[in-house]
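Notebook entry, structure prediction.
Reason for the run: the old model in the group folder had no record of what sequence produced it. Starting over properly, with the input documented here first.
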Amino acid sequence: MDQPPAIIEDLAESLVADAITDDQIDQLDRMLTEQPEARARFVRYVLLHSDLHLALHAEESARDALDLLRRRQTVPPHKHVLASARRQSHWIGLGLVASLAASVAGLLILAPQTPKPGVSAQVNPQLIRPAVAAVEAVATAYDAADADWTLNGQPPATGERALAPGARLVIASGALELAFRSGPQVIVEGPATLRLLSDMELVLDSGRLTARVPQDALGFSVRAGSTRVIDLGTEFGVVAARTGRAEVAVFEGEVLVAQANGEQSQERLMAGQAAVSDLGRITEAQFSPEDLNLVRALPATPPSDNHEVIANYRRDYVTAEANQPTPVRGWQYLWNRNGPQGDPRNYVPLLSNGSFHYAPGGTGVFPGPDPAFSLHLREYGGHPGRDATASKVHEFGHGPVAAFTVSRPGRYRLVESWVNRLDPIDEDPEWATNEFGLDVMVHVNDRAPLVKKFAKGLRTVAFDAELGELTAGDTIYVVVGPNQSSRYDTFHWNFSIARLADQQAVDGRDAI
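New structure, fully documented this time:
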């Protein structure tokens, strides 16, 4: 039964005051894990009602909590986070508590003391800092629409996609799409200059962008001059000038726009609203979000001379109703619950959490119990489950499967494929020599695999394949496994399924 809305604020207040009981911790754990609205209310409570300062100390506490979490993978993470937070003497990491309950460590918003009743303190946007684990890549250059761009002053190497903290991007023309490992997806239009501070924050020195942020990445922020745009679960756009002026528009949800002047002025913008932040002030805009003509989606890949793309993983991805499989015709998102990968009889559906990903447990606890653990698929990638050495349930590895069933006969191929693992090596000293990476497999029906490749470190691996002559009802399975390690295996990927043009000419019809 849903809890009364006020309870989450009461529990949050007890937590930040270090006055929470063990029973209340269990109650808060359940609410943050099972109720997306509870997580959102928890974020808003601390964001809008806490006096924020001394963030450096809090980030150190958060890193301690993350280290503890990484070393105790077999216990639900939120238990450790809340227990660690209690030991930190009032230094509570909001994003850590809320999003790790959903298995995502994000923005830290800190509450060193309980607000006095009836007092709503101002947020200090300059002290809201993301605290993330030390990682090699914070984002992936996911897609480009004729983008002419450089990375750290040099043209990107062929296939270079992983972007490290501090990366500086200059886009002379076109548009580039970035997928951040924490969840946000950002389209930047050239000419533009930006820097990636972490997987929860970027600096837009100049240019235009739109950001689409899922619920598990609440707090993602964009800096533009002295302006800070802080996401509260939304889609928004920013236009930044080198003079420091910033225009902000909200398409869905809401954001907090903060101006770092002496008074720390700030405004909340809701869907359909826009504002101008300049010269230490934030004023209501005389234009609508649509008036900015921002690019909110890149065009689909055009057909080549000899094939037509009939399916693309990311283009076709949609979120289903809670606890339902994907509704997209032809597609299935699966995992190998019942046996090794490569045999369709072992695959069962992944279910939507109703928000941003598909996992074995749907809206249940995530990460789930062994052997699924962090296994999931989302729009731009995902994570495998336990490998054979780590699982105490099965002697085989577990991972997600994206399957597509063709509806017309023809000659098919897998094209425009790539996968990159965002962590080149485990951070835990116990696993310091582990570079086992991911394994990628492609098979049709129950036939022998056509592709078996390994993705290690930050290198992008292609897995294009000739699939041969297929008949209606044949299914193409693209499988990601944990190889010999189930730790630090976050991956980004995409691929297309194409039908050769000579077959198109024969029947004159689309493949689906």
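Summary: The two ends are 43 Å apart (CA to CA).
The old model has been moved to the deprecated folder.
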